[in-house]
Specification:
This protein is an alpha/beta fold. About 30% of the residues lie in helices and about 20% in strands. The structure holds 6-chloroguanine (6GU).
């Protein structure tokens, strides 16, 4: 039996701002995991794939208009350099499918991901058509580049990897895995400026605490996120034990 060394989950980032990485990913949970070799990250500078002496990665848009467009040939060379890496290639763009916990889970279960970060107005469409690239957005607002989105995606994936979370709650218990927003949390002091902690939480009655938290999570989800609530109610009606986003 070949004792194959398990490959660790690897993020490969393609960016014109490599100095943005690891950034926040070098700290806290993700940073400790990186130091301990529980995951790995390679950051490639797209500018290194430029061919001309000015190392230009962008040019004016055909048809006119503001901003610059990343060149197909440069991005293609950058993507060619990662094509043997395991896992999908994701282009971070507000035009993409919304990142949700289901996609995060799917990526965490795979061998890794290559993340293409765009800057400027976008990337020449022809290279996106020519290569197998999944477009992913982190929400309905515009960032000045894909880098903060890549950091958010990697953070969300890495915290699900084996060994990262330690003694903390299992991901199965938390928001978006249950399909509900989180219940409120309280710590000492029990009386803060006359505001008291809900009595049930100091009762020591674990089943009552569990039921109270579920009730609060349901109340808050129904109030704030009718979209999540409708899905939760539907799944509960079908007797499914796990909420959250479907694959
Ligand atoms: Cl993935 N990129 C940029 N530039 N803006 C975004 C985004 C991504 N997701 C939401 N806004």
């Amino acid at each position: 039996m070949g004792a194959e060394a398990a490959e660790i989950w690897r993020a490969t980032v393609l960016t014109v701002f490599p100095e943005m990485f690891p950034g926040p990913l070098g700290m806290s949970l993700a940073g400790r995991g990186l130091e301990r070799g529980l995951w790995a990250m390679d950051v490639l500078d797209i500018r290194d794939f430029a061919r001309d002496k000015h190392r230009s990665v962008d040019d004016e848009p055909f048809g006119g208009g503001p901003g610059m467009v990343m060149r197909a040939d440069v991005v293609d060379a950058a993507l060619a350099s990662v094509e043997d890496r395991p896992g999908p290639v994701v282009y971070l763009t507000p035009r993409g499918r919304a990142l949700d916990q289901a996609l995060v889970r799917r990526l965490a279960e795979g061998p890794g991901v290559s993340l293409l970060c765009g800057r400027y107005e976008g990337i020449d469409q022809r290279v996106l058509d020519a290569r197998d690239v999944e477009e992913v957005s982190v929400g309905d607002y515009v960032l000045s580049g894909g880098e903060p989105a890549a950091i958010a995606l990697i953070d969300a994936v890495v915290r699900l990897l084996p060994g990262i979370m330690g003694n903390e709650e299992s991901p199965a218990e938390e928001s978006f895995e249950t399909g509900l927003l989180e219940h409120p949390h309280y710590t000492r002091p029990a009386d803060w400026q006359g505001r008291l902690v809900p009595e049930v939480l100091t009762s020591g009655h674990h089943e009552m605490v569990r039921r109270w938290r579920l009730g609060e999570a349901e109340r808050i989800t129904e109030q704030r996120r009718p979209d999540l609530w409708a899905r939760y109610v539907k799944r509960k009606g079908r007797g499914e034990d796990r909420g959250g986003q479907e694959e």
